[in-house]
Every structure is written in C-alpha cells, then in structure tokens.
Amino acid sequence: MIGVYHLGIDVGGTKVAFRVETGGVFVEETAFSWGARHSAEEDLAQLADHVALLRERLGVPLDAVGVAMPGTVGRDGRVATWPSRPEWTGVDLKTTLRKLFPEAAVAWADDGDLGALAEARASGCENLLYIGIGTGIGGGLVLGGVPCPGLGRGSFEIGHVIVEMGGVRCVCGRRGCLQALASGPATLRRAGLLRGADVSFYALQRALRDGQPWALDALEGTTRALAAAVTGVQELVHPDRVLIGGGFAAGIPEIVPSVSGYLADLARQGQAPLPVEPAALGGLSSLRGAVALAGLVAAGEGP
Is residue 57 predicted with pLDDT exceeding 90? Predict the structure, then answer.
C-alpha cells in the first residue's frame, strides 16, 4: 500500500478504538476493551500490544497520529486527572506516544473538543456547540471552523459548568456540575429515586416510550440542566447550532426535543433559541475527530 496514513485513537474508560485513513479514505477500524483494573502500566502494555498488531496488519509507516483523551492532560504531557481511571494520574502520555509512534507526528486533545471538530465538519457548520452524553458529559465548541479555546490551550469542559448551586456532588469534587445532573448514570440514578427501584438504561427507554411519569420527570431534570448550560454558552459566544450525541443520548431520542423546548423557554426577548439536532456521527465523533487531529498535526496546524 502506498500513501500517507493517519491514525486516530479514541481512548475511553472501557475501550480504545482505532481508525486509519489515507487521503481521507477509510482503511481500517478496530477496537479493544481494557482488561482488569490493575495499573496504568498494564493498560499501557495492552495498548502497545494492540498498536503492534495494527502495525503488522497495515505493513506501512504512519505519517501522523491523533489521540482523543477523556482525562485532563497538562502542558507537560502528563495526565493530571482521569476520574474514570485514576491509576493513570501522572502518566507521561507524551513520552508514551513518542515511543509507540517514533516515526509519526503525534498530538492529543480532549475527546469532547475532537468530537466537536468532527461533528462540525460532518454537518458543515463552522460555529457549533457539541455535547456528548455518556458515562460522563463531554463536549466542544468550534468557532470559525477552529476548536475553542484552541488545541494546546486546555479543553472546553462543558460537563463541569455549574448549573445548580449546591447540587449533587460531581466526580470532580464540586457540586452542581452539568455532568453530575445530566450524564447517563446521573439520569438513571434520578429515575431510580423517582421509581423507588433501580432503573437500567433499557428500562428507562421502555418507560419513556410508554410515557411513565417517573421516567418523564427523570428526563426533565437532565434536559433542563442541559438547556441551562447551552443557554450560558449561547450568551457568551453565539454558536449557530447545538448537536447532542454520545452513547446515552443516541439511545434516548426524547432528549433532543426536550432540550429544544427548554431552550425556547429560556430565550430572552429578541433572542432566538439555538436549533438542536442529534449528532451526525453518534458514538464515533471523538474517533473521527482524532483522525482529523492527525491531519492537522501532519499539516503543521496542531498543538
């Protein structure tokens, strides 16, 4: 095979996905799930094994690699915090990636920021707010086709915008974060409290289809919090559109129209509410964004 090969890696709390493209054309996509929780060293060894297998199948050098990370990575290239896998705290991600891909240009960025970049490109919208709802809440903002606040300048942490003073405690340690109120687990916990028994994702889906009051009330708490956060972003930077994605939201189609209704309620006089749509790429936005980051760094436009 002849060409310039870009690899995108989406590192998640439960699995890692890879996507290879050349000239914008799909070559391969694969994934693996993390093993038992022991140490970051064992995770990194597992990652190295799968990278080696991928290299063997490709049989060509990689030109650039983009990595979507859910944890916070400091300017020194070390993982500052990752609540889902705290054993990674202090991992030298920069050195690790250089060793795995010595021949390639390598960059990493927040998975929400990269998801927003991919969704903006897929939708043709240069001023876009993206929110991904899953185990946590990620998201990103693209203005003029460029991620904001900018690669290498930190991430757009909409999941940790405070929408309820004195609200429930978030994994970050604060109270009232959007993630603590509107993530998938937060929604299921609220549904369980209202129902008086544990609620699974599939049970919530069925109850919403059947119009069960406890399910509708649980979803209302989630979508009101989302609308509050979106309204704050709109007042500050005026995106043209908001897309809602992530695995949890993809399975609960009622989220998008509910958020849209609350945005209309929150709109100031003379201000049109932002249009809300489902994300085009679903659970693949961060992976596609990682490939896009590889393209940017290959062109000398990355961090």
Answer: yes
